[in-house]
Each structure stands twice: as C-alpha cells, then as structure tokens.
Write a structure and sequence with these properties.
The protein is an all-alpha fold and 109 residues long. Helices cover 66% and strands 0% of the residues. It has five helices and no strands.
C-alpha cells in the first residue's frame, strides 16, 4: 500500500504489518487535522471584515462557504449567527443598515 505514496510522505508514516493498523493511524491523524482546520475556519469566520476589495455578494458567499466547510466537519453554524457574523463584518459606513436590520429583528419581523 505504501508503494503508491510519495517518498517525502512515506518517511513520516509508521511501518505497519496490516492495513487495519495503517488505517487506524490515518484516522487518528485526520481527526487532529480536522480539529485544526475547524479552529482555523472558526477564527476566519469570526474575524472576517468586508474591505471593499470585492463585491458584497462575493463577501457573503465567502462567509457562507466557510460555514459550509464547517458543516462538512460536523460543526453547524446557526443561520442567525451566520447573518450576525455578516452584519458584524461590515465597515462603519454600513451602520444605518445594521441599525435597520437589528430594529427589524427586535420587532419580530
């Protein structure tokens, strides 16, 4: 099985006598990678800011894609939280929009 693996990766893998041992090793290490990726994605999601370098639509899609990647790692982001992340990522000139949105939510709309 290790014959089809690149040499630079092969040197980091343990010598195992069975496929089951090898797959156990891979599964344990992939969970560590998933946790690391989830942490990185959460940090990105909570600190993203709209800087005007691309359209608002692209910004919202980028945030939605991060939420989808988190969902694939079995971490769901509530839609209300996602909207709040997007609202909080806007610069000060979107203040009236933020106030209007928050007022609508407070009034149950």
């Amino acid at each position: 099985m290790q014959i089809s693996i690149a040499n630079n990766i092969k040197s980091t893998l343990p010598k195992t006598s069975s496929v089951k041992e090898f797959m156990t090793f891979v599964e344990e290490h992939s969970q560590t990678i998933d946790k690391s990726l989830a942490g990185t994605l959460m940090a990105t999601l909570t600190t993203m800011k709209f800087d005007g370098s691309h359209s608002m639509h692209e910004h919202v899609i980028e945030i939605s894609n991060i939420a989808a990647r988190l969902k694939s790692l079995r971490i769901s982001v509530d839609k209300n939280f996602l909207v709040q992340f997007i609202i909080n990522s806007l610069p000060p000139e979107y203040g009236p929009f933020q106030v209007n949105y928050n007022t609508m939510i407070d009034n149950g709309m």
